[in-house]
C-alpha cells in the first residue's frame, strides 16, 4: 500500500494542475507550485523538504534554459509587434495560391509558434484566417483547425518555447539536437492535422445534411 500512495498522489497532483489551469483563474506558475507540493508531500516528504526540492529543481532548470527562454520571448515579441507573423502568412498564401489557404496557415503556425507563445500567435493570426474564409469563401473551421494545429505542434515540440526547453534541461538533451528533432517530427503531425481539418468539415457537412433531410 505504501507503494501506491506516491502514485496516487502524483495522479492527484496532475489532476489538480489540469483543473487549476483549465477551470480556474489561478496563474499557471502557482498551479504548478501547488501540484508539485501535493506530489512532494504525498510522496513522503515533509513540507520543508518539499519546498527545498521545488526550489532546487526550479533553480537548476531555470539556470540551464533561462537565457534561451528570455531571448525567445524577446524574438517573439519583435515578430508580434512588427507584424512579421502576418507577413509570413501572406507570403505562403501567395506562394501556394488560392484554395490552399489551410496549408499556408498551417505552415505559418509551424514557423511562428517556435518563438511566439501559441495563445498570442493564435490571437494575432486568427483575424487573418477569418478574413481568408470570408474573402475566399472557405470554411472557417478548416482554416482555424489548420492554423491551431500548426501552432500547437511546434509550440510543444520545438525550443525555445518553455516546455520542450524544460524537458531538455531536465534530461540533459542538447538544445540544438532537440530543435532539429522536434521540427522534423512536427512535419508529419502538421500534415495530418491539415487533412484532419479537411475531413472534419466534410464530416460536419454530412451530419448537417442528414439532420436537414
Mean pLDDT rating: 76
| Structural class by helix and strand composition | mainly alpha
Specify Rg, calculated over alpha carbons. 21 Å
How far apart, in Å, are the first and last alpha carbons? 58 Å
Describe what this molecule looks like in 3D:
This protein is an all-alpha fold. Helices cover 85% and strands 0% of the residues. It has helices at 4-23, 28-42, 47-82, 84-96, 101-112, 118-135, 140-157, 162-171, 175-212. The termini are far apart. 30% of the residues are buried.
Give a brief rundown of this model.
This protein has 213 residues and is mainly alpha-helical. The protein has helices at residues 4-23, 28-42, 47-82, 84-96, 101-112, 118-135, 140-157, 162-171, 175-212.
Descriptive keywords:
213 residues, mainly alpha, 85% helix, 0% strand, disordered C terminus
List the helices and strands and how they pair.
Blueprint: H1 4-23, H2 28-42, H3 47-82, H4 84-96, H5 101-112, H6 118-135, H7 140-157, H8 162-171, H9 175-212
Amino acid at each position: 500500500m505504501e507503494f501506491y500512495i506516491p502514485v496516487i498522489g502524483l495522479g492527484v497532483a496532475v489532476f489538480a494542475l489540469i483543473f487549476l489551469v483549465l477551470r480556474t483563474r489561478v496563474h499557471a506558475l502557482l498551479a504548478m507550485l501547488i501540484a508539485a507540493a501535493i506530489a512532494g508531500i504525498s510522496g513522503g516528504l515533509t513540507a520543508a523538504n518539499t519546498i527545498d526540492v521545488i526550489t532546487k529543481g526550479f533553480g537548476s532548470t531555470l539556470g540551464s534554459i533561462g537565457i534561451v527562454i528570455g531571448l525567445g520571448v524577446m524574438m517573439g515579441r519583435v515578430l508580434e509587434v512588427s507584424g512579421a507573423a502576418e507577413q509570413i502568412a501572406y507570403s505562403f498564401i501567395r506562394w501556394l495560391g488560392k484554395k490552399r489557404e489551410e496549408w499556408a496557415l498551417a505552415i505559418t503556425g509551424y514557423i511562428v509558434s517556435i518563438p511566439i507563445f501559441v495563445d498570442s500567435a493564435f490571437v494575432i493570426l486568427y483575424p487573418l484566417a477569418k478574413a481568408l474564409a470570408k474573402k475566399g469563401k472557405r470554411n472557417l473551421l478548416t482554416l482555424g483547425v489548420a492554423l491551431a494545429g500548426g501552432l500547437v505542434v511546434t509550440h510543444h515540440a520545438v525550443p525555445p518555447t518553455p516546455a520542450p526547453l524544460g524537458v531538455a534541461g531536465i534530461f540533459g538533451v542538447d538544445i540544438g539536437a532537440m530543435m532539429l528533432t522536434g521540427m522534423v517530427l512536427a512535419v508529419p503531425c502538421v500534415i495530418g492535422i491539415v487533412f484532419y481539418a479537411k475531413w472534419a468539415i466534410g464530416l460536419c457537412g454530412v451530419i448537417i445534411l442528414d439532420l436537414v433531410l
